[in-house]
Structures are given as structure tokens and as C-alpha cells.
Design goal:
heterodimer; A: 106 residues; alpha+beta; Molybdopterin biosynthesis moea protein, domain 2; 2 domains; three-stranded antiparallel sheet; 5 strands; 42% helix; B: mainly alpha; Hypothetical protein af1432; 16 helices
Chain lengths: 106, 278
């Protein structure tokens, strides 16, 4: 099955999700390894330790049409956000955002 | 409607809620490496309204907690320094200042400030700046808007209408109706409140950093642009403001390199708005 990686606040994660990347604490120690299947106790512990984000691998059940529509909407929104002229630095930011949104949709 | 002169604005600051002692302590301790969590928890315990909000936020971070958080110290661990600072400042300023229904939504301003603060913290981590100072500067960068609205609510609502109808910048609309903008108003307020100099510089320099060289002004400027580009507060008329080439160069900022942290910024923003209920 195709998987997609999503970055979430721990409060949005649910038991049964699989970590896509290790969670490292403030002291540099690994709290949970990549591939760990999250259970309620682990999520409770992460929240209590003040972990702010985690990456999970979710099954991608979207069909091609849904992905294409999400991509078209994302590109249209970025064009609207960057309407009007600006500095080359603003254009470079626009390109980085467009690239990020495309990766996020795929 | 005649706008108040910039020199008269601070007379209206008395109408803004005063900063509680804990906020003074927090902003002072941003530059103090010796400041510790126990001392902060002690100060927080003297403000019951803030304690109540901290506990509510700690218990709202998501459905993953198996038992409730009931002490400031536990809440501090769950929330971390940035979210604690956000709640304390929000309690002092915007929560007591509910201007919804008047054409000025302080909740929206607070959501925007949280987005800029999170971007500022991540950019500070990338560029070697003090992340906690950057975060707080991001939270307070638009405080001048609150002061201008307090001083002349009808005229400030007109500013927002002009911005929307002419698709112009807020700064341009403020200057055309008031003769000055929220960066000047905010700087005056920061000085009156004796906030750290860096916070005043960030407030004054975040729209036109090339006019006033300040590292933190540059940092909050690019952070605000990034928060718009990531569409964090999801406003229908959102438009990414121009970004200073010089500010990016001074910070050594590379957007493609920073792009690796865009997803993390969005998740942090989602987490904090969830916890704070804004």
C-alpha cells in the first residue's frame, strides 16, 4: 500500500499510527524510533514531555483524480497569495512554497 | 474623524490592559540564561487567571492525555516555554480585549502573531539567533495595531476597510488615514512598557527593515512574510508582502534550505492554536 508522510502536532495523532521518523528529546536522546506503532501510553508520554511535532506514515487511499484536484487547488492558492510584483527574494520564496505544496499533495 | 497624533497615542495606552508582573518577569528573563522554570512557575502561580488558562491549554493539547494535568509545573512541561509565553501575553493583552463585533478581531490578530512567532523561532534556530527572544518579538510585533484601534476605533476599522477594498498594504492604509503606522505606534508602546530594546526594534523594523538596520527587525520581517506565504491564518484576502533582499542576505537565509521545516512550522501552528483555542 502507498504511504504518505504527514507532520502532526501530537494532539492530532492517534493510536495505531506509525512513526515515519524517530522522535528525539531536548537532550538529544531518541524517545521513539522510526517505525514505532503508536499506542495511547506513548502519545500520553509525548504530550507530557512537551513534544511539539511528530511525523507519521499514513496509508494513501486517494485516487488520481483527487490528487490532481488537490494539486490544482494548491497551485491556484499559491498564485493568488503571490499576486503582484515583488523582489527576487519574494519570487524565490514563491517557488519554494509551490514546490512544497506540490510535494505535500503527491 | 481626526486621528490622534502619534505623540498623543500613549495617553490612550491607559485604556489598554496593563502588563501584569509576570509579563515583566518573562520579558526580562528572555535575556537571562539563569532564568529557570521553577522561578517562572512561582511567578505564574501569583496570577490565578493565567494559571486557569495554562491548565486549560495543557489539557487541550489533544485527546492523547490519559489523565488530567492539574499543576502549573506539569502544565509547564506539557506546554513548553513558548506556549507558556503565548498564553501569558494573550491573557494580559488580547483575552481581556475582546473587540470582536466592532470590525476589529483581536483573535485574528493573535492567530497571526502566533504564526509569525513560530516562523521567527524556526528561522532563529536556523540563523543562530536567540529563539525565545525571536518568538516573543513575533508575538508582540503588531501590538501597535491594538493601540491605534483603542485610540480611534472607528478610524482603524476604516483602515481595515481601505486595505481590503483597495487590496493595498495595511501600512499604506494606516499612513493614509492616521499619518503614521502601527510600527511607530508599537515602538512608542514598547518604550512606555519598558520592554527589552530588541522587542522595540522588532516592532519598529518589521515592515521596512532596510530603513532601520536591526537583526531582530530583519528576522521578524522575514518571519511575517513566511507566515503569509504558508497561509497560516488562512485569510481569504491574504497576500504575501514583499520581502527585503537585504534582510534575507543579512540573515543568510535560504528559502529552499528552510523549506525542509515548512511542515514542522505548520504542525506547530496547528498544535498551539489547538491548545490555546484560538
Amino acid at each position: 500500500m502507498k504511504l504518505r508522510t504527514v507532520c502532526l502536532a501530537p494532539g492530532r495523532a492517534a493510536p495505531g499510527m506509525t512513526l515515519a521518523a524517530a522522535i528525539v528529546g531536548h537532550d538529544g536522546h531518541t524517545l521513539l524510533a522510526a517505525g514505532t506503532l503508536l499506542d495511547p501510553e506513548m502519545l500520553d508520554r509525548l504530550i507530557r514531555r512537551g513534544v511539539e511535532t511528530l511525523s507519521v506514515a499514513l496509508p494513501d487511499t486517494r485516487d488520481e483524480e483527487t490528487v490532481a484536484m488537490a494539486l490544482a487547488n494548491a497551485e491556484s492558492r499559491v498564485r493568488s497569495l503571490f499576486r503582484g510584483k515583488g523582489s527576487p527574494a519574494r519570487e524565490a520564496l514563491g517557488a519554494a512554497i509551490l514546490d512544497y505544496r506540490r510535494q505535500q499533495c503527491r | 474623524m481626526t486621528p490622534p497624533a502619534l505623540s498623543e497615542l500613549l495617553a490612550h495606552a491607559a485604556a489598554l490592559p496593563s502588563l501584569p508582573e509576570v509579563v515583566s518577569y518573562l520579558t526580562r528573563s528572555l535575556n537571562d540564561e539563569g532564568a529557570d522554570a521553577d522561578a517562572l512557575a512561582h511567578h505564574l502561580n501569583s496570577e490565578p487567571a493565567i494559571v486557569a488558562r495554562l491548565l486549560a491549554a495543557a489539557n487541550s493539547v489533544g485527546s492523547g492525555l490519559t489523565s488530567p494535568i492539574f499543576s502549573v509545573k506539569q502544565a509547564f512541561l506539557v506546554l513548553g516555554i513558548n506556549r507558556v509565553v503565548s498564553i501569558v501575553l494573550a491573557s494580559a493583552l488580547t483575552y481581556r480585549y475582546d473587540a470582536r463585533g466592532s470590525g476589529f478581531d483581536s483573535r485574528l490578530l493573535w492567530r497571526h502573531s502566533l504564526g509569525v512567532a513560530i516562523c521567527a523561532r524556526v528561522i532563529a534556530e536556523q540563523t543562530g539567533f536567540n529563539p525565545e527572544m525571536a518568538y516573543t518579538a513575533g508575538l508582540l510585533h503588531d501590538i501597535g495595531q491594538l493601540l491605534m484601534f483603542t485610540a480611534s476605533p472607528g478610524l482603524y476599522v476604516r483602515v481595515l476597510e481601505v486595505k481590503r477594498s483597495e487590496d493595498t498594504t495595511l501600512i499604506a492604509a494606516e499612513r493614509s488615514l492616521f499619518g503614521y503606522d502601527h510600527t511607530a505606534a508599537g515602538r512608542a508602546l514598547a518604550t512606555a512598557w519598558r520592554l527589552p530594546l530588541e522587542i522595540g526594534d522588532a516592532i519598529a523594523g518589521h515592515h521596512e527593515p532596510d530603513e532601520m538596520f536591526s537583526e531582530i527587525g530583519n528576522l521578524v520581517h522575514v518571519s511575517e512574510v513566511l507566515s503569509h506565504a504558508l497561509d497560516l491564518d488562512d485569510q481569504p484576502d491574504n497576500r504575501v508582502p514583499d520581502v527585503s533582499e537585504l534582510a534575507c542576505a543579512h540573515l543568510g537565509l535560504s528559502w529552499p534550505r528552510l523549506a525542509g521545516r515548512f511542515a514542522e512550522i505548520e504542525a506547530r501552528y496547528d498544535g498551539i492554536t489547538l491548545a490555546l483555542g484560538v
